[in-house]
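G., the chain you wanted modeled:
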Amino acid sequence: MTGITISKSVYLPTDPATVWGYLTGAEKLGRWFHPAKADLSDGADFTLVSAKDGDRMCWGRVTGMDAPTRMTWDFTVGPLGGHMTQVTWDLAPAPGGTRLTLTHTGLPDTADAYGLVLALDKGWHGFLGNLHDMT
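Predicted structure as tokens:
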């Protein structure tokens, strides 16, 4: 996959199975990211909405699940204009908890789109911080 890649890791003070629940459960996703219309499941489309007004924030399809170690999404947001990117969540046991790594690939690599890349990078940073506070 060409384009820009964002990669971030956090260490969470709980086991991978608990973290997995926060990545896949509709209600738990809403606590740290955006509410989901339904629990995420392998091969299924998903829509995440704004907690404020219910507007669609991001959407795509779960393209792979290997609970509780890896999940991949085809993923887009409105400013991407329908361009689908890929998000991979890798969970690994760590002493006393879990190392969670997010890799977001296929982002536009043009100067005109760099503001969007910066916004997504900042957003992922904040959302992973929220998740850290939840677990």
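The helical segments are 16-24, 26-32, 114-134.

Shout if anything looks off.
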